[in-house]
UniProtKB/TrEMBL annotation:
This is DUF4157 domain-containing protein. Keywords: Signal. It comes from Deinococcus aluminii. Residues 1-20 form the signal peptide.
Amino acid sequence: MRRRAVLLALLLGAASALTARDGRLSVTVSDARDRTYLPAAFGAWHEAERDLRSLGLTMPDVRLEAASSAADFARRTGEPWFVAATTRGTVIHTQRLGALAAQGSLAITIRHEAFHAAQPPALPRWLAEGLARVFSGEGGHDPLSPTGLEQVPEEELDRLLANRTGPDLPAAYREATRRARQLVGAQGWARVLARREVSRSPGFNASPRR
């Protein structure tokens, strides 16, 4: 099996906590059951890193911290229950790896957050979220029906995405993805990633649970 075997496994204070590192990614799991999913997490990460390099993006050293439960995730991040993960600088917080795997969303979540860790800092929130959903493949599961937000200005789309408990949030993610996909189709990844708009978002991105 290719993978440098989940290098450097170090037990932390609690018996169930474990930190493993492979390349530029270190992963800390707080629930012993999540150790089973470390190879899958590293595999998805390395594939994402390879694909990001092909887009001209450089991956920094990143730390992923998997919570022990949904309540633990909310306590650490202040995010609502339906959020799968959030990236703040070079630190990714996720729900339990096992919970993501049970939903079939572990690889998609890793790819989504990998994009956020490597994205140009000047991207506005709507574009960053839309591109992350295109890159991860998450947007491929969106319904084909209209979002109802086609005429909403970008500033308003940013606001809807920032308000993560609003009723329009699912449609806002879909609309951001639709616009990002159109831009990539018309201009290509390189030109879209080179946009230098001033970001209106705070320094983190969050992914809803799939």
